[in-house]
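User: Structure please.
Assistant: Input sequence and predicted structure:
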Amino acid sequence: MTRPEAFPPGPGAHAPAPGPGAHAPRPGTWARTRAAISDVLYRRHWFYLSLLLAPPLLWFGVVYIGSLLALLVQSFYALDDFSGSVVPELTLATWRDLLSSPANIDILVRTTLVATAVTIACALLAFPIAYYMARYAQGKVKALLYLAVMLPLWANYLVRVYAWKIILAREGVIYWIVTNLHLDWLLAAVLETPGVGGNTLSTSYLGMSLVFTYMWLPYMILPIHAALERVPESLVQAAADLGASPAQVFRTVTLPLALPGVVAGSIFTFSLTLGDFVIPYLVGTSAFFIGQAVYVLQGASGNVPLAAAFSVFPIVIVSLYLALARRLGAFDAL
């Protein structure tokens, strides 16, 4: 009779363990390489972090910072009046032309004033909304408010601009409401105001500012809301316990702690207004803004150095604004 151990093992049986004198099979080349790499990355955290950050930093440094530096360098080139070609020699002639020409100064001042007005309007509208969302809204109401703030950003930019162009036209809903309320005289008086009005709302600075405010309002609401969410409720209660009125609590506690959010939102609204050229082209007067000037100069005119100088101007203005905000302590609460 055949012994049981003579039969071959079944398909589910395991091979017998090697004896004490047997050696385990050596890992392959790829397994040893992977183990060595893992050991290096585990022991040298800085090397692992460098590998993770290298691609985005290269992209940021080469594409973003590099393009800005190229823009800055080209603003110190000049355009040859005879041949119309760019002379790649460093000179201040382009900047002298930018800051001495009345037409160019008019473009810079007009764009800066409109951007400032839009930023102030966005801050005044966004703060109450963000305050209510952070302090009082709960549950479904808060979710609906978030949705209402974010919903306009889901629509195409050009579609929203053209929609506002129709709304502000003489046949639009605003004129229809004003006519039915018999306030035609008031709208006519506003449109006759120098520096504000125009022939219609769709061809006035007021209408253009309304469109800018609508477009950039979410970029002001969200940073202010995030800053108000970080204000500890205990500080507000402590100020109230010490006898401060609600107005004093807001002025001395809430507003200083929310100021970084206001500054962050104003950077978005101010810089976006400075560089936009679609809204001034479709809505507003025929006067040029910085974005339109850059578009025309680098395109039809071929004056790339002057277009670069116009492009550098918003960067300088925003940098000065950030330096002023930091000096005034706007970022101390961060």
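Strands lie at 78-79, 86-87.
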